[in-house]
Amino acid sequence: MSTPPVPRVVAVVVAYNRRDLLAEVLEALARQTTPVARVVVVDNASTDDSAAVARVAGDLVDLVELSRNTGGAGGFAAGIAIAMADHEPDWVWLMDDDTVPEPAALAAMLAAVDGTEYAVAGSRVVWHDGTEHPMNTPRRNPFASRAELREAEARGGVAIRSTSFVSMLIRADVVREIGLPIADYFIWNDDFEYSTRALRRHRGLHVPESVVVHKTRVLGSTDVDPGARFYYEVRNKLWMFRRSSSLGPIEKAGYGASTVLRWIRTAASSTDRSTLRDGWRRGWRDGTRYRPRPNAVALAGLGRASDAVTRIEPADG
């Protein structure tokens, strides 16, 4: 009896001004016990030597240099498009340039989803000291059936409704079905929208045996005082609740209520509430007046990346 082929996995790493961490991430990807087929590194117009680090990392890496910073959302949209258009993946593995996977991280996720209909898998995310990272906690699926819960438990996992781009594995056929992350989100909530969009009609699994280290400067959750970036939190949540089909009506009500509570906690703990008020005002204005552009428009003028985006997701799609 022949051994089934190992799934072809293409990793996508979005890089911006963290060259030393990027080198560590690329080294960790090269050491995976189940090898990745390619690593697409999207350099988001870094001003350090991030592109040079990727360039000398070897033939495993496909470097995509963008002429402007498109944020994490634009970087992942471009990177997934390149992976899909040029590298024929079975799965795409997403991570930031401060996400260092343990050697068996990919093998554990693939083993957990092997022979199943799972469309998305996510790793357990820890900080430098092994503490669970609160910034990347997946949301359990409250609508999972008993059979789904039992299957997830049998595979050593948890049935999820969302996960983060800090080590998210997504099936390539699902990318073709749902498209790309929304580039105009720039930062924040892009992974929440994309993972819930993928999992609206598919199943996802959190895999605790797959471990990655998220090397943020501090250990904190998303309600830590965000400063001026609060604008993106407000605008993008409004875009998601008002424009996206990733959540059903009941979910939008529930997540909307929890979002308001999180905003209140953020304001209560802030040392610069005037900045938060300004971010809330501008975010509310733009989130209610405007809508995100099609990716082919938002990511136009970026050469190879733009071509790949239009191949995967046309402007009129």
UniProtKB/TrEMBL annotation:
<dbReference type="InterPro" id="IPR029044">
    <property type="entry name" value="Nucleotide-diphossugar_trans"/>
</dbReference>
<dbReference type="Pfam" id="PF00535">
    <property type="entry name" value="Glycos_transf_2"/>
</dbReference>
<protein>
    <submittedName>
        <fullName>Glycosyltransferase</fullName>
    </submittedName>
</protein>
<comment type="similarity">
    <text>Belongs to the glycosyltransferase 2 family.</text>
</comment>
<feature type="domain" description="Glycosyltransferase 2-like">
    <location>
        <begin position="12"/>
        <end position="177"/>
    </location>
</feature>
<keyword id="KW-0808">Transferase</keyword>
<dbReference type="InterPro" id="IPR001173">
    <property type="entry name" value="Glyco_trans_2-like"/>
</dbReference>
<dbReference type="GO" id="GO:0016757">
    <property type="term" value="F:glycosyltransferase activity"/>
</dbReference>
<keyword id="KW-0328">Glycosyltransferase</keyword>
<comment type="pathway">
    <text>Cell wall biogenesis; cell wall polysaccharide biosynthesis.</text>
</comment>
